[in-house]
Design goal:
This protein is mostly helical. Helix content is about 55%, strand content about 5%. A hairpin with a 6-residue loop joins strand 2 and strand 3. Helix 23 runs antiparallel to helix 24, helix 25 packs antiparallel against helix 26 and helix 26 packs antiparallel against helix 27. Keywords: Repeat.
């Protein structure tokens, strides 16, 4: 049999049962194509009778068929895929792709749009533009798109055992969960072919088990006999999208793209609507991405309802996204609506002007252009448009334009929104007229019967900006007494003003009052900490810093650490400064350059190397040290997926070199160490770990592939003097005769590469193998040459311990 996706969605025939509100939708067939075939001219009346009988019989027989064991041939299901044998003389029943869309409810309730009523429903519901776009899926394909794929009937299979096994699988597969389903299919690997698996997947879609069909499809793709089937993938993606399972729908959608095929227009449409139906973070961005691909990759022209629903979703998005990105996407949608000759609604114009007014740099020319187009389309500027204009002009301080727009707003006679007063106050604050801003605030109180929270925030901000202490204090008191919240933004503004004016006592009072009346925030704490450090009250500043650090909702940041560090350094409290510095290193905070110079000097007195909190990237010195340590036997542990890797630093207790090297390596890689490995100097263990990070994947792939030590093929490029020095310090030793011995693990081929690299540096060596370990010996003048190469990179405390015998050094004096 053949399952076809080549359906005409331009219209549909709905037959409703008198006993139920549900309807069975059947897409019409192409009469002209049938009439051109003599076989079908004489049987047209028979065809219509069979269709009518099938539709009437559907309701009574469907429940019985769903409970009955899968028979050898599939019967017609009005809501799902229909099957028919290729050799059947009868006209095949048609596949209805939009039936799932008719069953589901609204997608996004908060979006408002055009109210549509569906045939067969006794009452109309306002589902908004997203629902409108969903209903338009049936009309997406205006031309026939061939996506046929063959599914043979059970009776067509020559093997009786295959027919029985397929029937058994079709019965068992939908009843199992994912893991059991995979095990069940794996047990049938010996005989299952692509045609069999396709039959099972289509059967699952027919009985509305679309997730099970997806699992069968995913299992198919992992088999070595699988060949991509565009028709199957398209149908599966469409059914999953209509059920709002956008993640699985996107997987199948990506499979189509990865095969170099362009998905059908309906698949694009369905996936966009599925994303818009979800409130999950990031779904709007994905909907925009698919919409853009639909136009740029597929060359399709989406329906007006899809344009409108995506545009309104951009306008309704609150936070979490870039308004600049939303503006670019909205302009792209507007461009597509205009260029395809569709009707541009009034809300599109007003929404686009609003988005432009939200930008930091307002494009006034574009706003004026939109206003002209709006007038040509016969739309009057609404209150929302005028308020958006007020906002745009206020950002640039255009008082004249603001006043002119204000008059336009008054002439509309539709009430003045509170935001209009706020924008007008902002405009006068831009030109330095705080008195006029205060006058507008009082007008706002009279007009609205009381100021809004946003109004209080704006006027306090304006007065603090111009350091009008008495006015600001008076209005803040009014704000507190009004009982409106939140108060925190106004307290922050007044604290900043006190700090700038040096009114530290008033700042402390405002801080205490803020803690009593508001939820504490890191910003107000930082301002208070700045004040304490500036007046030299470091004891209290330390207490406030500790309170911030111990409070999970506040915590410290780079600013608070730098503030306290500066206070301790300026006052000569070096011990406390070092503690703050260690905390900043642990948290990877950037230290201000002037402070770093002082920290360098203090820590150099203790012979402690300074580690700046850089980004998570190994320095050149760290990379060379790692190469040397890995040659010496340092281990790397990887997770099962080989995505994250952890370095295990291990030192021997009975080695004098390791006792000294351990401290140095701990300090060298401190920012990369696991938090549990950050011990005090006197209790550093002989074994500690780095954090698990993907950056170590390079070293894991080259030095520890398959969990075993290996010598990289390009090791000769990485054997720098620095790396050789750490190899020697970590796993080498000096013999009693003054020779140098290096320990190495790996294959014989890798050892030969190391020996060849040493010979390239004019050093001859001997190799011995003991068990799985190779020993490389440098004797006489060769050990002297080796020491001359690595000597500058060996730790001072280890030079006497590792330096070759004096007899071996005669070669240096001879040269």
């Amino acid at each position: 049999m053949i399952v076809t996706g080549a359906c005409d969605f331009s219209s549909s025939l709905s037959v409703a049962s008198s006993s139920s509100s549900s309807a069975i939708a059947v897409s019409p067939f192409n009469v002209s194509s049938l009439s051109s075939n003599p076989k079908f001219i004489n049987s047209s009346s028979t065809l219509f009778r069979s269709l009518s009988l099938s539709l009437i019989h559907h309701r009574s027989s469907y429940s019985r068929r769903s409970l009955r064991r899968l028979s050898s041939s599939h019967k017609i299901n009005g809501n799902k895929t229909h099957f028919f044998p290729k050799s059947s003389p009868r006209t095949p029943p048609l596949f209805t792709a939009n039936s799932t869309a008719q069953r589901t409810g609204t997608f996004v309730e908060h979006l408002t749009g055009i109210t549509e009523s569906e045939e067969g429903n006794s009452e109309s519901n306002d589902f908004g533009d997203v629902e409108s776009a969903r209903n338009d899926i049936r009309n997406v394909a205006t031309r026939r798109v061939e996506t046929e794929f063959e599914v043979r009937e059970l009776e067509e299979l020559p093997e009786e055992w295959r027919r029985s096994k397929l029937a058994w699988l079709c019965k068992e597969v939908p009843s199992h969960k994912s893991v059991t389903l995979v095990r069940l299919l794996n047990a049938q690997k010996k005989w299952v072919r692509q045609e069999d698996a396709t039959y099972i997947a289509v059967h699952c879609m027919r009985i509305r088990e679309n997730e099970t069909g997806f699992r069968v499809y995913r299992w198919m793709t992992q088999q070595n006999w699988y060949r991509f089937d565009f028709g199957l993938a398209t149908k599966l993606a469409d059914f999953l999208g209509k059920e709002r399972k956008f993640t699985k729908c996107r997987e199948v959608f990506d499979d189509i793209l990865n095969q170099g095929r362009v998905p059908r227009e309906s698949t694009f449409h369905i996936l966009v609507v599925a994303y818009l139906s979800s409130s999950v973070e990031g779904c709007l961005e994905e909907a925009c991405s698919v919409y853009n691909r639909m136009i740029q990759l597929g060359g399709y022209q989406p329906r007006l309802s899809l344009h409108n629903s995506l545009f309104r979703a951009l306008l309704s998005k609150q936070g979490g996204g870039s308004l600049d990105g939303h503006l670019k996407q909205a302009e792209f949608i507007f461009h597509n609506v205009v260029t395809t000759g569709l009707e541009v609604q009034k809300d599109i114009y007003s929404g686009l002007i609003w988005l432009h007014s939200c930008q930091d740099e307002v494009d006034k020319a574009r706003i004026n252009s939109l206003r002209e187009e709006m007038k040509k389309a016969g739309f009057q500027e609404s209150k929302e448009v005028v308020v958006s204009l007020l906002r745009a002009y206020a950002k640039e301080g255009g008082v004249e334009e603001v006043e002119r727009t204000w008059l336009e707003l008054l002439n509309l006679d539709c009430g003045i929104p509170s935001q209009a007063f706020v924008y007008k106050m902002e405009a006068y604050s831009k030109v330095g007229d705080f008195a006029k801003a205060l006058e507008i605030f009082r007008e706002m109180e009279k007009h609205l019967g009381g100021a809004t929270v946003t109004g209080y925030h704006k006027i306090v901000e304006v007065l603090c900006k111009f350091q009008q202490v008495e006015y600001a204090e008076s209005l803040l008191k009014e704000f507190v007494e009004s009982g409106k919240k939140p108060l925190l933004p106004s307290y922050i503004e007044i604290a900043k003003m006190y700090f700038d004016l040096g009114l530290h006592e008033k700042l402390e009072m405002a801080f205490v009052e803020c803690l009593e009346k508001c939820q504490p925030s890191q910003t107000i704490y930082n301002i208070y900490l700045d004040s304490l450090v500036k007046i030299g009250n470091l004891e209290k500043a330390g207490d406030v810093f500790d309170a911030m650090k111990n409070n999970g909702t506040i915590n410290v940041n780079a600013r608070s650490c730098n503030t306290l560090l500066k206070g301790y350094l300026d006052s000569g409290k070096q011990v406390r400064a070092e503690r703050v510095y260690d905390l900043m290193r642990l948290k990877k905070y950037e230290i201000e350059p002037p402070l770093m110079e002082k920290v360098d000097y203090i820590l150099s007195l203790k012979r402690k190397e300074v580690k700046r909190p850089l980004s998570m990237k190994l320095s050149k010195e760290q990379r060379e040290v790692l190469v040397g340590l890995l040659l010496g036997g340092l281990q790397i542990e990887s997770d099962k997926e080989k995505k994250s890797h952890m370095i295990k630093f291990e030192f021997r207790e009975n080695s004098q070199a390791h006792l000294i090297l351990r401290q140095h390596i701990h300090d060298q890689f401190r920012e990369w160490l696991h938090p549990l490995s950050d011990f005090q100097e006197d209790i550093i263990p002989f074994e500690f770990y780095s954090i698990s990070h993907s950056f170590f994947g390079f070293y894991a792939d080259h030095f520890w592939p398959k969990g075993q030590p290996e010598i990289p093929k390009l090791i000769h490029r990485w054997l720098s003097p620095h790396s050789l020095a750490y190899w020697y310090m970590y796993s080498g030793f000096r013999t009693s005769q003054g020779d140098i011995i290096l320990r190495l693990k790996g294959s014989l081929e890798g050892v030969e590469k190391v020996v060849k690299a040493l010979r390239g540096k004019s050093m001859m060596c001997r190799v011995k193998k003991k068990g799985k370990v190779f020993w490389i010996g440098l004797q006489g003048t060769n050990s002297a040459l080796f020491w001359n190469l690595i000597g500058p990179h060996v730790l001072e405390d280890l030079k006497d311990h590792l330096k070759p015998a004096s007899e071996s050094m005669d070669f240096e004096s001879c040269c």
